[in-house]
Write a structure and sequence with these properties.
Layout lengths: L5 H5 L7 H13 L16 H8 L9 H21 L3 H12 L2 H8 L5 H13 L5 H8 L6 H16 L16 H10 L4 H21 L3 H9 L3 H10 L2 H21 L3 H4 L4 H14 L4 H14 L3 E4 L2 E4 L3 H9 L1 H18 L3 H13 L3 H14 L4 H13 L3 H14 L4 H29 L10 E3 L8 E3 H4 E3 L4 E11 L5 E14 L2 E4 L4 E7 L3
Parallel strand pairs: 3-4
Antiparallel strand pairs: 1-2, 5-6, 6-7, 7-8, 7-9
Helix pairs in contact: 2-3, 4-5, 4-6, 4-7, 5-17, 7-8, 7-9, 9-14, 9-16, 11-14, 13-16, 18-19, 19-20, 20-21, 20-22, 21-22, 22-23, 22-24, 23-24
Length: about 525
């Protein structure tokens, strides 16, 4: 009933939210320690890329690793159900119920995400029998995704409750296995400016993001688990009164942290999967006669209940396999029909909303100029339409006109300061402007040299401090209030004696449009450093 997005895997779908992460993941697999990633949130999720790098997996082969994680996760869940009640209906129903939640679906829906390995780690913490289970999960899983740290207290508490044990201080020593990750992360990130900026940004938007996402919480959370919410409710209801307050507090804190740190609601709520299994196991313990029929019915129901990926304000339906196959081989016909439908509604009802819908359809088809014009038509009908300004920003971004994208995104944020999508688009456009100014500064300095081909600027990086052989363009190229860009840069060149000289410059540039830059004043030489011939 639910299938991977085969059409998206086959060919790039312009503007789809999954591709920046996909590109970053594949780039990490080639060089796990690279820092010039589009998304700084995955920079420390090093374990899967490192495994792929050591195995020398070529091309898109690393995309198989998340799917292997999903298979391992579903297999482990099946084993857990069989341990509790050896009835094929109970095992099949419980496995099906779990496999149709977003703990599994998101791995197939969003290529390059290793969520399944994280949820496998949390279930190991909750239900693993071996003495090494918790230490191994704590040492490895945070390097897959930091959300393991958020879910660990709840998973650990579920394990205690499932074994009939209460919370006590000596037992919390298992959490000390997380300290090596924390210490190593702090040590490695002490000079990582990008990580510090990301942390400060996450703290700054924590409360505003929760407020913004409140209207989408019901549908986002429902889509994440759907019928699996019943075992969650049963687990909460059957928790003994002496443990109920602690369990409820831990669950609430876990959910609040996930909302504040992530806007993919249906994906993030999967952090409750240990509670889902706890409810199923508790029901089998209390009612072993009816549990097989009930759990099987829930699994089949979850298979047929529609599912959708809820990202911020966007909802993307997950299609069954036949539809995905049709979209794969007859995709152009579907897109053409969708476009004709959008044109029809815009013609018979020329409202701002219909033009915005047509703009989005054009964008999904890769027709960015047409998308831009339709978004502008929406603004003519409603000049204060923040969503239309955001579409203008996205279309300009796709056309490479980042300066106009910045202006449109800023206007969208002026009209709606809590518009997180516009904020993300503004950030991407501003980074494109920074990089363009950096490249323009390098080109200008090369023109100043007698031997441009011998010039060296080191490697361009996107995080951390400058080193002897690299420069961080994201911190050395900064936009200014007057519309110019201030670039601090060094270049190495040979002087007349054949000695390599490194010169540092401070430059101001202004973008004139059409990929043209002009120098504001002359470059200011900061210092010179002589190197070995």
């Amino acid at each position: 009933m639910f299938a991977p997005p085969l059409s998206q895997i086959q060919s790039y779908l312009a503007g789809h939210y999954s591709y920046p992460r996909l590109d970053d993941y594949l780039a990490q697999c080639k060089d796990p320690l690279r820092r010039d990633l589009k998304s700084t949130t995955i920079a420390w999720r090093l374990l899967p890329p490192l495994v792929c790098h050591l195995l020398r997996l070529p091309g898109r082969t690393p995309l198989a690793l998340p799917w292997l994680g999903a298979v391992a996760l579903v297999g482990y869940v099946s084993v857990l159900f069989r341990r509790r009640l050896d009835d094929w209906r109970y095992v099949a129903g419980g496995t099906l119920l779990f496999a149709t939640t977003f703990a599994v679906l998101v791995t197939f829906r969003w290529p390059g995400l290793n969520d399944s390995w994280v949820w496998l780690g949390l279930l190991t913490v909750a239900f693993g029998r071996a003495a090494w289970a918790v230490p191994v999960a704590c040492l490895l899983c945070p390097w897959v995704d930091e959300r393991f740290l958020i879910g660990f207290p709840l998973a650990w508490l579920v394990g205690r409750f499932e074994r009939g044990r209460d919370w006590d201080w000596p037992a919390t020593r298992e959490g000390l296995w997380l300290l090596p990750y924390a210490a190593l992360r702090i040590w490695l990130g002490r000079h990582d400016d990008a990580a510090h900026q990301q942390s400060h940004l996450a703290l700054a938007i924590f409360i505003p993001q929760i407020i913004t996402l409140v209207p989408m919480l019901p549908i986002g959370w429902w889509m994440g688990l759907r019928a699996a919410w019943l075992p969650v409710a049963y687990a909460c209801w059957t928790t003994p009164p002496g443990r109920r307050a602690l369990g409820a507090a831990t669950l609430i804190v876990t959910v609040v942290l996930t909302i504040g740190l992530s806007y993919d609601l249906s994906r993030s709520i999967s952090i409750l999967v240990p509670v889902v299994l706890l409810g199923c196991f508790e029901y089998a313990r209390r009612a072993p006669a009816s549990a097989p029929r009930m759990i099987l019915a829930l699994g089949v129901a979850n298979l047929f209940i529609p599912a959708a990926m809820v990202m911020d304000q966007d909802i993307e339906t997950i299609c069954p396999l036949p539809s995905e196959i049709l979209r794969l081989y007859i995709g152009p016909l579907f897109r053409e029909r969708s476009l004709e439908t959008a044109k029809y509604y815009a013609a018979i009802s020329p409202s701002a909303e219909s033009h915005l819908g047509l703009s989005r359809t054009y964008y999904q088809n890769g027709q960015f100029e047409e998308s831009l014009e339709e978004a502008k038509d929406a603004l003519r009908l409603r000049p204060s339409y923040a969503e239309a300004y955001n579409n203008v920003a996205v279309a300009y971004l796709a056309l490479g006109r980042w300066d106009e994208s910045i202006a449109a995104a800023r206007e969208a944020l002026r009209l709606n300061p809590d518009f997180s999508l516009a904020r993300n688009n503004l950030r991407m456009a501003e980074r494109l402007g920074q990089r363009a100014a950096w490249d323009a500064a390098k080109a200008y300095l090369k023109r100043m040299l007698k031997d441009p081909e011998a010039a060296s600027f080191g490697s361009d990086v996107d995080s951390g401090a400058d080193s002897n052989d690299s420069q961080n363009w994201s911190t050395n190229s900064l936009s200014q209030p007057d519309g110019t860009y201030k670039v601090t840069i060094w270049v190495e060149a040979l002087n007349g004696l054949g000695t390599k000289i490194r010169s540092h410059f401070l430059m101001r540039l202004r973008y004139r449009g059409a990929h043209q830059w002009e120098m504001v004043g002359s470059p200011v030489a900061l210092d010179r450093q002589q190197k070995t011939p």
